[in-house]
Amino acid sequence: MRDIRISVEAATALDPIYLRQLREGPDQGTEECDSCGRPVDLDREPANVIVYKYPGVTNVMFAHVECAGSALVHSDDLSVRAQLEKVHVLPMVMGDVDFASLVIAPYFRARTSDFQSSAHIADWLEAGLHLILSITDLQHRPPDASGWRASFMPGDQAGQTRVTVRSGLYSPLGPTTVVNDVGIRVSEAWLDLVRTSGQVALLAGLTEIHKLPDRDPWNILRELAKAFEQGALTCGMADADWLGV
Ligand SMILES: [Zn+2]
Asked: Which of 29, 53, 134, 201 is the most exposed place for a label (fewest CB within 10 A)?
């Protein structure tokens, strides 16, 4: 049993199942301390839980017991949700397949209000991406993701391309911008795959691709495999536009 300390107030904002998970695992054991930023190993040292409630999103953070007390913090800051929805984007070509891929990963692992899953995974599945159920799926063309579209245009600098990805194009609530005008560097061959097929494969999951030192395909694949093992990898073939001249 972990020594996870939660104030009565903070506990009222948490689902009982999630509370038990916090105390017993399984989860990744190490988090960043909300106060000092250094790692706090939940499996080896006591930790305080700090619950932040923002409009539309709840985020659970941890702190060393000497750094900060357990608390429930309310905020009406609307920008937090947008911040939590920010994503990393990494282009790649999978093995010898004939399609281009974009790996999408959140900057932050916000949790849904029911605390059963990552907010991002829930949103992506809801919007029509498909959960990857077998690691060999990565070698195949993913099923179509209805209502998803990636738009590419030349960037300001030579060799740069800008990408915007939207979901929910046919939703009565209107589209959601998942990737907002992010600059990527891709080869002409990669762009040709997108232009000729009019599609790009999306691999959206809780990976840590931004921590990779390079774009070595094996390292990327290992990150994707880790996310898959956590049930946190989704995929789908999105339509793609090239808005170049
Ligand atoms: Zn600390």
From this structure: 134
Predicted model pTM: 0.70
pLDDT in tens, 42-51: 989 999 999 9
| pLDDT given for residue 218 in this prediction | 84
Together in a domain, 73 and 101? no
Interval 190-230: pLDDT, tens: 999 999 999 999 999 988 888 888 878 888 888 999 889 88
Same domain, 226 and 115: yes
Regarding whether 213 and 107 lie in a shared domain, the answer is yes
Pairing relationship of beta strands 160-167 and 176-185 according to DSSP bridges: antiparallel
**Ligand 1 center from residue 165 Cα (angstroms):** 37
HEC string of the chain equals CCCEECCHHHHHCCCHHHHHHHHHCCCCCEEEECCCCCEEECCCCCEEEEEEEECCEEEEEEEECCCCCCEEEECCCCHHHHHHCCEEEEEEECCCCCCEEEEEEECCCCECCCCCCEHHHHHHHHCCCEECCCHHHHHCCCCEEEEEEEEEEECCCCCEEEEEEEECCCCCCCCEEEEEEEEEECCHHHHHHHHHHCEEEEEEECCCHHHCCCCCHHHHHHHHHHHHHCCCEEEEEEEEEECCC
Give me the domain span that covers residue 106: 85-242
Q: State the distance from the centre of ligand 1 to the C-alpha of 58, rounded, in angstroms.
A: 21
In this structure, the answer to whether residues 70 and 94 fall within a common structural domain is no
> 64 C-alpha vs ligand 1 centroid, how far in Å?
4
